[in-house]
Amino acid sequence: MKEKLRKIPSVHELQQNQLFQQAAEQIGEEKVVTSWLRNEVDLLRQAFLENIGPDVHTTEEIKTYLLERLKYKSEYFQEDRLQRVINATGTILHTNLGRANMSEAAVKKVAMAARSYTNLEYEITSGQRGSRHSILEDLIKECTGAEAAMVVNNNAAAVYLVLKGLTEGKEVIVSRGQLVEIGGSFRVSSIMEESGASLVEVGTTNKTHPHDYKEAVNEQTAMIMKVHTSNFKTIGFTAEVPLKELVNIAKENEDLIVYEDLGSGALYDFKNHGIGGEPTVSEALNDGADLVTFSGDKLLGGPQAGIIAGKKKWINHLKKHQLARVLRVDKMTLAALEETLKAYLQGEEGVYTIPTAERVLETKQSIKQRAEAFTDLIHLSEWQTFIEEDVSKVGGGTMPEVTLPTAVVHLHSGNTPAQVVIDKLRTETKPAVVARIKEEKVVFDFRTITEEESKIIAGALQTIEKEMQSLS
Ligand SMILES: *Cc1c(COP(=O)(O)O)cnc(C)c1O
């Protein structure tokens, strides 16, 4: 044992090796790499002492082993953590894949904001301190018709700020049919509890009537809250009180706030294209909501953000709240959001520059052209590809009932199970390709695959087929 321990080279000796030098150069900090090396030497010594060591015996073997470990570690620390991924699922706002892709204009603006000083909290005309909460206010007002607006970190934060800032210690009436959980971590009831407001549930899961609300109002009531049930739909024997009617009920009681958490908050009316029944932000405000909140990175197609829009009286109050500081957004978010909002002001043409909107609106015929270009391009020897019709989902808990007709490609991979192909596409292809399996075939939905990405997928499949053939 002692003899084996003596064969472990010293850290100093290992440092002379070329592999150490390479690792140190890559990482750029010799001290860090030396500490990793020291750690590996200690681990090996310990392993030898416990007689569980790796199968290395000669000095040369031990040396190679330690340097290989070091190489592995330095490569591991240089790997990309946040990586680009090709979304072949067709789900446009894939929550696990980071929801919305930004427009080119937004990307450019983010780069500018990241690189430079900006007037984030500075009024250029007066040279005075400005407010980041107000910097996009005019734009949001223009896009929604709201009297006032502010931006926070995400919609969950927006909901929290509204409840905490305006209803703490008071009662908030919500229909039982709207007590939703979104994305497994956002529950209206829990966020309400956190905010210190008391939830007053009315109605039943499937039906809530105006009188349910009327009977629940008392001196403690501060708000009637409506939650857009983004990610599920009740069908059959159901009744919901329309926003307009809630507004009427509130009018009978001075200073009762009517607030709708819209979730997605479309600025563009997809209903005009026969897609979904999502109320636009303007519609909710027109119907008389005092406040609405919605996400920046759902149907809006911008960065992660939460937008609060509505009556100036309430917004001003929220801007001054301590929590507004806690929930504030950074300059890059505002940069991306600004360009996204401006695109909506440019009308139809602008809307098509926003990838999320463009993908929701793209027709099956147009998607099919990309799928055909892909099947023409790919050269497989035995595997085959077939274009099929299918449907894509919007995703992100948005428009759950909507199915968008699409063109997909099914891969018939011979003796190779679809699961093997899909695993290789994910773990061995750069960027990783995320696809799905249907009836033992790998499915690629071209709604979310660009022309450039088609080529990457084609190349990857050709490589995987060759590899599988060489194994058999
Ligand atoms: C998605 C959603 C939220 C949470 O929004 P985030 O931007 O993900 O924080 C809150 N309420 C509703 C109704 C939603 O659909």
From TrEMBL:
Keywords: Cytoplasm, Protein biosynthesis, Pyridoxal phosphate, Selenium, Transferase
Pathway recorded for this protein: Aminoacyl-tRNA biosynthesis; selenocysteinyl-tRNA(Sec) biosynthesis; selenocysteinyl-tRNA(Sec) from L-seryl-tRNA(Sec) (bacterial route): step 1/1
Coiled-coil segments on the chain, per record: none
Pfam families, A to Z: SelA
A single BP term in Gene Ontology: conversion of seryl-tRNAsec to selenocys-tRNAsec
GO molecular function list: L-seryl-tRNA(Sec) selenium transferase activity
Enzyme Commission number: 2.9.1.1
Cofactor(s) needed by this chain: pyridoxal 5'-phosphate
Keyword Transferase attached: yes
Catalytic activity: L-seryl-tRNA(Sec) + selenophosphate + H(+) = L-selenocysteinyl-tRNA(Sec) + phosphate
Modified sites of kind N6-(pyridoxal phosphate)lysine: K298
Compartment(s) where it occurs, according to its Swiss-Prot or TrEMBL record: Cytoplasm
SUPFAM superfamilies named in the record: PLP-dependent transferases
Top-level lineage group: Bacteria
GO cellular component, one term: cytoplasm
Reported function: Converts seryl-tRNA(Sec) to selenocysteinyl-tRNA(Sec) required for selenoprotein biosynthesis.
Protein family membership: Belongs to the SelA family.
Protein name in UniProt: L-seryl-tRNA(Sec) selenium transferase
Source organism per UniProt: Alteribacillus bidgolensis
Highest classification ranks of the organism: Bacteria, Bacillati, Bacillota, Bacilli, Bacillales
Name of the gene this protein is made from: selA
